[in-house]
Each structure stands twice: as structure tokens, then as C-alpha cells.
Amino acid sequence: MMAQLPVLTQELVKRLEQAETAFWTSRIEAIGSREGNPMGVHTARFGHTSAVCTEHMPWPLFNTVRGLGSGDVGELGAILRFYAEYGRSCTFELTPGKADKSVTYALARQGFYQESFHAYMYGLPEPIAPVLPPHIRIEPITSTDRFDLYGELHCVGTGMDISAKQHFIDNNIVLLNRPGWHMYVGYVNDEPAGVSVMHIDGDIASFTLAATMPEHRGRGLHTAMLQVRMHEAAKRGCRLVAAQAAFGSVSQNNMERAGMRLAYTRAVWSALGE
Fold first, then answer.
1. Rounded to two decimals, what is the model's pTM?
2. CATH superfamily of this structure's domain 125-238
3. Per-10-residue mean pLDDT for the chain, 274 residues long?
4. Which residues are CB-contacts of 214 (< 8 A; sequence separation ≥ 6)?
5. What sign does the CA torsion over 168, 171, 174, 177 have?
6. What is the residue extent of each domain of the chain?
7. Which of 65, 72, 96, 134 could be joined to 47 by an S-S link, Cβ 3.0–4.6 Å?
């Protein structure tokens, strides 16, 4: 009998949020564990709310507040002071399982606005190995000598200039052999074309990244990387897989075609004028 995707409940939403927090925390801790903490990673807890600040990485992903709910609204001033101490602004990622009008009202009063939505998807692992198109192959990354290639694919595939490649190498090589992390490189017609990453927390596999070089997009690699990770998750005993994408994007479309379903949309709030 085929497994059925569970109906979304508040308890399941909570578990999906925990899996997301687990990979986010693990990644940040790995970057912060580099000798001398060169990126200037700082973390803090405010009740049930987690905040991450990185002095030398200005991107929102690395300067984000997660888990803010009505019970921690009174901590908002302390959260903003935490970022001001390191000269950073922050974004707030709100989920429907925790945020309510008291949270959004408090953020608006502090000069924040809702910038965008992000889709959080969930689905079932696939016990049957996928049959990939003949022009595509995907291999696991198991040694540090693959990270020059990884850094280039991750960097350019996410829209950054190639001059930032070393940053991507340094901040991702620390995930190799870290518990729960699995990394892959994809080829199109034997040319390196993209990378993908998976993190396993308990029985949930989170697909934390997929990046494809611009010249290789639209050729099925993103879908193939999804299928391979869904199968790898099944081999490792996972009950669910989860992933995120820009709302309504091609990535979300591919996830839906692979059998995944929308769990919730996450609201991203940023400071006015930034």
C-alpha cells in the first residue's frame, strides 16, 4: 500500500518548523566554529525566538530572526539592540503557526514591513530509485577536493559574482561530514551544472539548497536533484521531506510536480528603507 502524505495539522507544522530550525542552527554553528570566527557569527535567544547576526555577511539569511510569536513580542526592543550592537539590520521570518496580529503590529510600529512570501513545502520520500534522463547524473560530494567546484556552482548558481567563490567554499566545506548533512553535484551532458544539499533531522529530510548554473536551467536538473534527494531520504529512514522556494516560482512548481504540497507560506519582514 502506498504511503499517503499526512494532512497538515498544527502539530505537523510545529515539527516542520523544528526541522527547519535544526538545519539553520547547524549551518550557522558550523560557520561560527571556523577558527577565529572570521565571519563574526553571533547568536542569541529571546524566549522562544532565535536570532542570528553575522558581522561580515550582510545577506538576510545570515541576519535573521525566527520563531517570533506573541509571547516574545516584549523582547522586540532587545532583539533590535542585539543587531545594532554589531552594526547589522535584520529580517524577521514569521510563520502562521506562531505569528499573530500582535506580532505584525509590533513590527510595523518599529518600522518594519512585509517584504515577501516564501513557500515551505512538504512531501514523502521515494523508496524507488529515480530513472534520470540520460543527459543528467548526480553524485554525492564526499571529499574536500570537490569544494572548489562546489563553491563555483553554488556561487554562480545563486546569482553571485564568481569573485565570491572562496566565501562559498569556506562557509560550506564545514558542513562536510557534519552530522545530518549530505551534498551533491549535478552534471548535464557531463558538464558540472549545479549543486544541492540535504539535512536530516530525526525523520524529516530538509532540502536546504539547490542551485543551477544559468546556462543549464530548464533542462531538468532541478527536478532530478529533487528526485535523488527524495530517494536518499527514504534510504535513510525518513518519513517526510521538506523544502522551501520563492512563492509561485519555478522551483515551487517543480516541487509540486514531484508530489510535494504547500505546508505554509512564511512572511519575510524587513526594515523600511533597506
1. 0.92
2. Gcn5-related N-acetyltransferase (GNAT) (3.40.630.30)
3. 84 93 93 95 95 92 94 97 96 93 97 96 98 98 96 95 93 95 98 98 97 96 98 98 95 97 96 84
4. 156, 157
5. negative
6. 10-118+267-271, 125-238
7. 72
